[in-house]
Amino acid sequence: MELRAVEEFLAQAPDFTGPRKRALLDAVLHLLGVTSATAEPPAPAAFSSRGLHLWARVQVTAVKVVLAHASGAIAYVHEDDVALLRSTQHPGIVWEGNLLIHLSVLHALTLMPGHDQLVGQGIRTALAHQRPDGGMPFICDEDTWITATAGVALHAAGAGQPALDSIARRLLALQQPDGGWSYSQRAQLTDVDCTSAAVEVLHLAGAQAHHASIRRAIDALHTVRGKDGGFPTYLAGAPSEAGMTAAAANALTTQGGSQHVTVDAALGYLSAVQHVDGSFPPDWSSSRLHTVFRAALAATRHPAAPGSRGHAVARRCQALVLGSQNSDGGWGQQDGAASDTLSTAYALITLTTRPDHTAPAVVGRGVAYLLAQQREDGSVRSVPDSIGPRPFPFTVPVLADVFTLLALGHLTHRTTPGPPGTGQERDRARGRPVSRV
After folding, report:
1. Residue pLDDT, tens place only, 409-427
2. Euclidean distance between CA atoms 96 and 144, whole angstroms
3. pTM for the full model?
4. Whole-number Å distance between alpha carbons of 22 and 56
5. In 225-259, where does DSSP find H-type helix?
6. Which member of 81, 193, 283, 385 is catalytic?
7. SS3 of 292, please?
8. ω into residue 389 within 30 of 0, thus cis?
9. CA dihedral 15, 140, 214, 305 (to 10 degrees)
């Protein structure tokens, strides 16, 4: 790989993950028999486990073993490192549902004597997840996060109470002891993204009925909140991220005045990290519009005086979307990129936050592009959007369906509201909460 291509690829990940992701890429290239084009060996910070959540500690340790062996410095691998890797291996179980980490651990253990049986067992476990096309997924599933996000989309689209109740019951059964949710029932490490989406669904399904679970989840969000007012993905003390902060702010706005100070601080963080063009630092999506739509929603749900930081965040988000529509009516992941369904859905949701709901021609062309991507069975085609570990992309096909539904729901009920008795107007009349994500 050329050095320029490596740098461009790594630039898609947040800056604070840079050394670790460079080391991971070097390890992957080494295992593939390709010489890395990086200018120098990974920095020592790439192998530090200080302040890392457990998934990252295991991944960093596996990379450390691979690169130490590649450079003839295997003496730098300690018994504690090997013990940590061994602790993730159990017959038939992919640790935390993460096949990439599972396979990384196996590659590392093959380089350490005495692990043949454990590696063989791990290979058999991995092969149980091989797809019909011969490939392997990055994770076993992302069902919990998808379920929560789909619940919000279904509500926006006018789904009935039975659908929301069913989703709420499933989420209640998966709430972790710390009050949060993980991306999958196979994992225990909770995160801000999944927890925020779950709060949204439980609130929409019945704020009073689910008060106790919502309260525990809100407390979990506060536990990891940063001193800068932002929120990280996983661990208290980790760097705050714009995408997670916007997600948490949206969840917290469901709680009314009790969370105004926290939401205002979150919007202050978003204002501080927002780029001049209205975009934000990279998050867990390949599309710059992913954090944009979340931030715009959070900013416009929070009661604040005109001219506030939140209003400024929303205006910059809206201006970015209005100025970046492609000639085919859609939006792309980055400036100049070809249109795709998910980026277009994010853009359209952002436009629904405009108070005057202007730019009908822009919205109309965007909707036409979106509907043109729908297949006969109702599903929607799109390019890969999710990334993890950042900046490696992976495909979750159903996300195109979920966010298309969410965008159309927002458009139906916000830009062209019907009379009382339909959709969210009916919900408002009955005092029922309306979708905030």
Report:
1. 999 876 554 444 334 443 4
2. 13
3. 0.90
4. 14
5. 242-252
6. 193
7. helix
8. yes
9. 40
